[in-house]
Amino acid sequence: MAEEVKTKEPLFSPKNKKLIFNPLSKDNPITVQVLGICSALAVTAKLEPAVVMSISVLAVLALANVVISLLRNTIPSRIRIIVQLVVIASLVILVDQVLKAFAYEVSKQLSVFVGLIITNCIIMGRLEAFAMGNKPWPSFLDGLGNAFGYAWILIVVAFFRELFGSGSVYGYPVMEWIGVYNIGYKNNGMMILPPMALITVGIIIWVQRSRNKELIEEN
Amino acid sequence: MFTNKYIFLYSSALVIVVAAILSSAAQLLKPFQDRNVRTEKIIDILRSVKIETEKESAEAKYNDYIVEEITVNREGEIVSLYRNGKFEKGNVRAFDIDLKTQLTLLDEIKAGKEEEEPQFPIFVCQKNGEEFYIIPLRGKGLWGPIWGNISFESDYNTVYGVTFGHKGETPGLGAEISTMPFQEQFYGKKIFDNDQVFTSIDVVKGGIANLSEAKQIHGVDAVSGGTITSNGVTDMLFDVLSIYVPFFKKQLENESKPAA
What we know:
The complex is a heterodimer of chains A (219) and B (260). The longest helix of chain A is centred in the C-terminal third of the chain and has 31 residues, at 136-166. The relative contact order of chain A is 0.17. Chain A has a domain at 29-158. With 219 residues, chain A is an all-alpha fold. Helix content of chain A is 62%, strand content 0%. Chain A is globular, with a radius of gyration of 19 Å. Chain B is built from 6 helices and 9 strands, in the order H-H-E-E-E-H-E-E-E-E-H-E-H-E-H. A 7-stranded antiparallel β-sheet of chain B has the order 3-2-1-4-5-6-7, with helices on both faces. Chain B has a two-stranded parallel sheet with strand order 8-9. The longest helix of chain B is centred in the N-terminal third of the chain and has 44 residues, at 4-47. Chain B has one domain (43-256). By secondary structure, chain B is of the alpha+beta class. Chain A binds chain B through residues 74-79, 82-83, 86-87, 90, 93-94, 97-98, 100-102, 104, 111, 193, and chain B through 2, 6-7, 10-11, 14-15, 18, 21-22, 25-26, 29, 32-33, 36-37, 39-40, 168, 172.
């Protein structure tokens, strides 16, 4: 185990701030690392499931990071992946049960995708890459940061897909209020299909890279 | 380095702790989840008689509109009758019956096994002075179970309303059975022909426009691209409704007799 910082550092030191803010843009799990794409395509047809999915991933990722970080010195390295999986799986089951109890409608819409948080590469990736070698507090921040990075992409994609696909935002029929249907506007049914999520994510990646030249590969 | 003994102990302890946490969480949340399932069932039943409800008012509306819960056996005899909050006959509430178990029982009896007599639920709804009879449905789609509720007018023949649900039919194809345009087709259709023979309602591939006029009243258009789900709906309606045919006939006979 690497020697850790001995002097007490402030809770939001520049290093810790980076943990939260890097995953939002230049280290984004979806647009830069291209992880967690599967669920990003599946649950973004409407805003509400996307928001609930984001919160679920946030809870699982932050807690799993903290738990693994607390256990990190006791976990035998030969079974570390199994231990990580057990922690993630139990947190996901907890989240699933809570949703079934308190957000039944949404949990039905999310159906298998809550369970599939277990296989979300972002979570395993963060546990293995960060929580196994860092203290609980930075791990918690790292979890939050990556979950927010995942969440904002999901929410932006869902916003556009719901707006153009169903003509509403978070279930409110915005397009009807504006009255564009009267002048011949029609909802684009294609936005509801998964491929359009991929294209929307692609557009976000394009915009992001054109603004941040560091992300562009040399060749 | 960790010894093998440590690894075994560590993983055992971890699994036991996790199991304890998960099972207590499941126990704790069970009542809430059960209530959700119950509310959903109520909302579904009421939707089949075209009453829209919110989650909060579901229970109250159910008590207002559903005046009787009946269970019948295969011969069409009433086994239980639950009216205005008390049993007038038998001791099983139609609401508590799981149709899936009853259908399995029926299948096993048909296969020659000795099983207890299955009971099938009917809900009687009173709305604007008229009575409607609601029958829960359950069958197989392409990927998993499909279900629904169908309500009849007091002639036990004309469909008043219907709802369908499904576990995981293909979105845009089979899943269309749970949309209003598909369900509205059933309104006013009949399950008995002019000679009082049970015909059920068919979901017709290629559309009912090609059928003879006499048959159109017993059919609706299938979902294009959702043939197996559509056939599933046809089978579900036939299988479940045919169980109730003896009951319907008995009721009609009783009503046609002059009141003593």
